């Protein structure tokens, strides 16, 4: 597939998010692609709001971006041993718009965190939640960047060879999957 559409989904709203750096690095390593970054800055899901006002435009945009994407690359921070409310909230809204859009979508999960485990627990929680959406995970040795501030330079590039190699392997697998 030439120039596949990649949707980058980062579970952090932070300007300097290491997970955003990680998904961007992943996209660079993937090679030629049409890359879109999802905006997860959505209102909190509220069933009353959905009933009275409908789904917010930004949630519809997210679902449409998922539908159009050839693959998803998700960067999940770890907050208190789980995924962030930001990521969960976005998945909840998207599920109310177009859950089937996720079905069979090749998906790579990545994480970066301050802690020693690199956000492993959150990564598994993200996998658990996304199983419900029936995405097709590109699994392998996990890319979980521990003590993340030590592994990115001021331009947001991943500097540590072991993580770079793991990420490149996963991106090569994703490209092979897309054909
Ligand atoms: C509310 C909160 C909870 C956190 N809990 C964890 C945790 O359980 N494990 C961990 O490794 N880091 C934890 N951290 C630190 C994050 O890993 C760190 O802030 C990381 O940079 C967040 O990802 P981001 O850079 O993409 O925003 C927590 C941070 C916050 C703000």
Task: Explain the overall architecture.
Strands 1, 2, 3, 4, 5 and 6 form a six-stranded parallel sheet that branches. The model has no long low-confidence stretch (mean pLDDT 97). The protein is an alpha/beta fold and 179 residues long. It has a single domain, classed as Rossmann fold (3-Layer(aba) Sandwich), CATH 3.40.50. Helices cover 42% and strands 15% of the residues. The longest helix has 18 residues. Flavin mononucleotide binds next to helix 1. The site of flavin mononucleotide (FMN) has 16 residues, from helix 1.
CATH fold-level name: Rossmann fold
Query: DSSP helix count?
Result: 6
The average pLDDT score comes to 97
Q: Could you give the order of the helices and strands?
A: EHEHHEHEHEEH
Which key terms come to mind for this protein?
179 residues, alpha/beta, Rossmann fold, 6-stranded parallel sheet, 42% helix
Summarize the structure.
The chain is an alpha/beta fold and 179 residues long. Helix content is 42%, strand content 15%.
Secondary structure layout plus pairing:
Blueprint: E1 5-10, H1 18-30, E2 34-37, H2 47-53, H3 57-68, E3 71-75, H4 85-98, E4 106-112, H5 120-131, E5 136-137, E6 143-145, H6 161-178
Parallel strand pairs: 1-2, 1-3, 3-4, 4-5, 4-6
């Amino acid at each position: 597939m030439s120039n596949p559409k990649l949707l980058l989904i980062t579970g952090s709203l932070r300007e300097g998010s290491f997970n955003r750096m990680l998904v961007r690095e992943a996209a660079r390593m993937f090679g030629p692609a049409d890359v879109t970054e999802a905006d997860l800055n959505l209102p909190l899901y509220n069933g009353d709001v959905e009933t009275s006002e409908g789904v917010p435009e930004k949630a519809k945009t997210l679902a449409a971006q998922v539908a159009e994407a050839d693959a998803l690359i998700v960067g999940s921070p770890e907050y208190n041993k789980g995924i962030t409310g930001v990521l969960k909230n976005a998945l909840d809204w998207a599920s109310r718009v177009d859950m089937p859009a996720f079905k069979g979508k090749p998906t790579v999960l990545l994480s970066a965190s301050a802690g020693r485990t690199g956000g492993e627990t959150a990564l598994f929680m993200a996998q658990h939640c996304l199983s419900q959406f029936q995405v097709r995970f590109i699994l392998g040795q996990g890319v979980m960047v521990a003590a993340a501030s030590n592994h990115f330079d001021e331009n947001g590039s991943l500097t540590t060879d072991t993580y770079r190699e793991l990420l490149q392997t996963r991106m090569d697998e994703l490209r092979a999957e897309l054909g």
